[in-house]
Amino acid sequence: MTIYRTWPLANALFVAGFISQPAVAQDTAAQAQAEDTGEIVVTAQRREESLQRTPVAVSAFTATMLEQRGVTKLENIAASTPGLNITPITASPNAIMISMRGALEQNGGTITAESPVAIYIDDVYQSRLSGANYDLADIVRVEVLRGPQGTLYGRNSMTGAIKLITRQPDGKTWLNTDVSYASFQETKAKVSVGGPVTDHIAVAASAFYNQRGKGWQYNEVLDKRVSTFKKYGVQLAVGLYDIPGVEAVLTGRYVAGLSDGQHYAPLDLTTGGNLAGGVYNTRTPRDDADGDNRQKSVSLRLGYDVGDITIRSITAYQEMKDNWALDFSGGYDSPFTGTTIAGFFRSSAGKQNQFTQEFQALGKAFDNRLNWIVGAFYYKEKASQSFLNDDLAAFFLTYEPSVFDTTSKSLAFYAQADYEIIDDLKVSVGIRHTNDKKTFDGLSPTAPGLGAPLAASLTGTKADVWTPKVNIQYNFTPDIMAYATVSRGYRAGGFNSLVIADPANFGSPYAPEFAWSYEFGLKAQTANRKAYLNIAAYHEQLSDLQTLTDCGNGCFTIQNAAKAKVQGIEWEGGLKPVTGLSLFVSGAYTFDKYQKLDPGSQAALNGATRLPMISRWQYQFGGSYEIGLGDAGSVMLAADYNYRGRFNTQVPLYTFSEVKAIDRGNASITYTTADKHLDIYLQATNVTNSKDYVSALVFIPGVFGTLYPAEPRIWRGGFRYKF
């Protein structure tokens, strides 16, 4: 799909007439209020408040917005969120690679990886990216907070946080069903039901099943289609309701994502094209790739009001098993044998469990001019992983398995208070102290060959970190607000595990990464709530930047190699010019540059000046129009277009590790009955069937690399029934 792009500056000007995409309250009542009156409520500061008076850059997506844009998993959110990049390019389709405002994590398939963007499900921290490409099956709302969130969201929220909120038991009776059939023999069904059990006890239950029977990629050596999957899950929440001042919800959750693995295409290191031909072809001769992830969790949320003070407790325990296997070459033409072989095949078996406990106390004082919150957070994780099969057939090398265990403990205390000094002028101050301790214990071969000796690695790392925040906001009118924020973000350090027969690097620790952020924001809306605009301009200073570097023959390590600056402007806006018509636009311009590099780092040795995974321009626009049919119901037409500029996936900025600009569109048409109980819909993602790659990797320079394509056009038809 080609569009002449002479308009990015015009887009920025055009934004001024548009309405920001809504962030809604944590309960369904507030969500309904937002849809009916336009009064938007968010919980970005751990309490409910109007979006237009919240001094934080927030993007939010309701269930309806997700449906209209064809968003079915976490990675799809990035197209609609300024400054965010999420791709499923790592070891398994269940895992993600994530980047926001310059900080990134690229090896989410390992237990040693730490994300710079904290992910929460119902306020429970999710530590592992290896199972983070969640199916958005029963999501009420997704909120993306941009910028350091270290004061209130803590560990690994260095440049932002993503919150997934599911429907909770509230004493109301409801039933939502969604059944659909899509391209490539994909069937999907989900159901959510809730209601009271007694006068004060209610339940909310949901389940989903999603299977793709025919892959959209083709392996020409095996002569079969690949990229099939099966996903399913259940969630049950039991809670108290209609008891003033008391909150209690117990939630259990189980999800599984099973697939035939990640299938890379072989990269032509002379032209940058696909050696297998076409866009969607691969050719590894191995038929034992897979990607299986299973997670289960239980959480308990308690709350109690003591006068003007609310006390909360959030307790959770989670377990995960994650197995994957793939050929990182996509099929390598051996110059020695003249045949196509699996250039580097690796399989992994991992498991993890974590316990988290958070306590909060929050309240108001001085005639509500003071809002405050204090809290404590404890996190403990145990994880293990084994690289069972390291077969570097390109060099006729096979290695003994590498095995390693990690533990992580984190204890944090935080406080934040905002005070309205005079009418419309508010100052906020926050601080968080985090103590992290981690250990690594593993065995790795010292040389290639079966029977090679193993070397032990036992290391540890710890950190004591203070992350402050100061914010000033001023309400010029009831509908126009500006704010300025200075804050510090932090990402924990970790250990190197993606090495082969390299005892010196296996288990070697790398240090935490930090960001100082300076942000100015403006939020404005019209009095009738028909139009509003949110803009955030920021400057971030990154230090001890964690960069994934190539150490040869399929070996990768993380170096604290750089200081860098990332700055930009982000906008979200929209307009409701006439009844039934809603338009939106969002975008970001990002400038990045290394300021200081370790002379021995791979970035310095290759003369890199920019950071990986950052596009200069990113934007999206679209809208929906509802056509009333009287007693026959209504028809909703929706469409959107998104663009992400070119970016490079690797620190050395190789010529052929650059991903070209990606532009895609989605469209849908939905018929709704007059009683609002039944929807019948047809939608298409990538409606123009644009053929794009989302990743390009020079895996072993001069030997082989890989490409990974984005999905082709997907048609989906189905129905939703709800009451």
From TrEMBL:
PANTHER family the UniProt entry points to: FERRICHROME IRON RECEPTOR-RELATED, TONB-DEPENDENT OUTER MEMBRANE RECEPTOR
Subcellular location: Cell outer membrane
Membrane disposition: Multi-pass membrane protein
GO biological process, one term: iron ion transport
Superkingdom field: Bacteria
UniProt organism field: Sphingobium boeckii
Position of the signal peptide: 1-25
Domain TonB-dependent receptor-like beta-barrel, first and last residues per copy: 267-687
Biological classification of the source: Bacteria, Pseudomonadati, Pseudomonadota, Alphaproteobacteria, Sphingomonadales
Name of one Pfam family that matches: Plug
Sequence ranges assigned to domain TonB-dependent receptor plug in this UniProt record: 51-161
Membrane in keyword set: yes
Keywords: Cell outer membrane, Ion transport, Iron, Iron transport, Membrane, Receptor, Signal, TonB box, Transmembrane, Transmembrane beta strand, Transport
Protein name (database record): Iron complex outermembrane receptor protein
